[in-house]
Amino acid sequence: MLSKSIKVLHTEWSDGWGGQEIRIINEMLAVREKGVEVFLACRELATIKQKALEHQIPVFTLPFRGNADFKTLFALKKLVKQHQITIINTHSGKDTWVGGLAAKLAGIKFIRTRHLSNRIRPSRTNFINELADYIFTTGESVRVDMIKYNRIKPQRIQSIPTGIDAKVFDPILFNKASCRSIFNFSNEIVIGNVAVLRHFKRHDLFLRAARGLIDMYPNKRFKFVLAGEGPMREDIERQIIELNMSEQVVMLGYIDNVAEFLSAIDIFTLTSDSKEGVPQSIMQALFMGKPVVATNVGSVEDLYLDNNFVLVKPHEGEITQGLASIVADNDKMDRLIRNSRISILENFSKDAMLKKITNVYENL
Q1: 280-287 vs 330-344: helix crossing angle, rounded to 10
Q2: pLDDT tens across 140-195, in order?
Q3: How far is the C-alpha of 2 from the C-alpha of 358, rounded, in Å?
């Protein structure tokens, strides 16, 4: 167990609920098991607030109106004193400015977690990341970029991908037939995607690749399933109609039990064109022993070990061909099912993440 004197206040500006916010909650729960006290500061209407409260994590609501929100900055500084916080860990751009400056003013440690893979503006005026005592990234390419373009010292930054709970995402815990019945899947080939319905997730590429696969194999029965909710729903629904795929595409909305869904499908695919770190959805699918077709963006390649999944460019034709390479080759599908979990178990589990994070806490 770690020292009870370690108290970490996480800050999050975003109101949404996706991979970043899920990572924050899971990380807080993991380190709490080791004796670290955790707190969350977020906006009043943020979904992460309710999720934290469900897990009995103390939550403070603040405006987080922008980079120069002095009201939030001094409120954070006051919280540090009241609760004897030792580390502030920030996550989005706006809360990184106010959270980071609050930590410096209060004389405590400042950790910045960078979740996205798009490059941070390298201007000298964008100096907040340089003030961090330590930086976590969710992928190796992000770490390299920040060292090269944002003047971060290599000894103060580390890639720590989100750890997957191997005890939850374990295929032996699930009966595939039973899971398929939950989602009303029959004997078709089910190809699934789990993601917030945001533009950079490129569900349009998923749908056009699906259309290409249907046209390539007119005698096979497919079902393409989108799990997730978000602002692009209406656009996606419109495209499904335009592609004449209403019979083959199912939109499930938000789902609670991702492992159950992954057990039910035959192939998982991610079609993002930017911003990804090391996507949790791909790791979860691999832990569940699923064949995966994923676009080579962000730090997705960190997971690519000995051809354990199909890596393609973010182009509908390549995605179609990647899916076809599995659909048409039973031996390849069997090999991916056998090896996908084994390939990443050691380095991308919850335990591996926890060890790296707590080592940083202790060193700071």
Answers
A1: 110
A2: 999 999 999 999 999 999 999 989 999 999 999 999 999 999 999 999 999 999 99
A3: 8
Q: Give the domain ranges of the chain.
A: 7-163+349-363, 171-344
Pick the CATH number of 7-163+349-363 from 3.40.50.720, 3.40.50.300, 3.40.50.150, 3.40.50.2000: 3.40.50.2000
Tokens representing residue 362 in the block: 């202790």
SS3 39: strand
Chain centroid offset of residue 309 CA = 18
For residue range 14-30, what is the model confidence (pLDDT) as tens digits? Answer: 998 888 999 999 999 99
Of all residues in the chain, what percent carry a pLDDT higher than 90?
92
Which run of H or of E encompasses 111? strand 109-114
Q: Kindly state the greatest CA–CA separation across the chain.
A: 67
The answer on pLDDT for 3 being more than 70 is: no
d(CA 266, CA 176): 10
Closest to 111 (Cα-Cα) out of 78, 94, 141, 86: 86
Identify which of 256, 251, 252 has the alpha carbon closest to the alpha carbon of residue 51: 256
Assign a CATH topology to domain 171-344: Rossmann fold (3.40.50)
State residue 255 phi and psi, 5-degree precision: -120, 145
Helix 233-242 / helix 203-216 crossing angle, nearest 10 deg: 20
CA distance 303 to 245: 32
Q: How far is 34 from 32, CA to CA, in rounded Å? A: 5
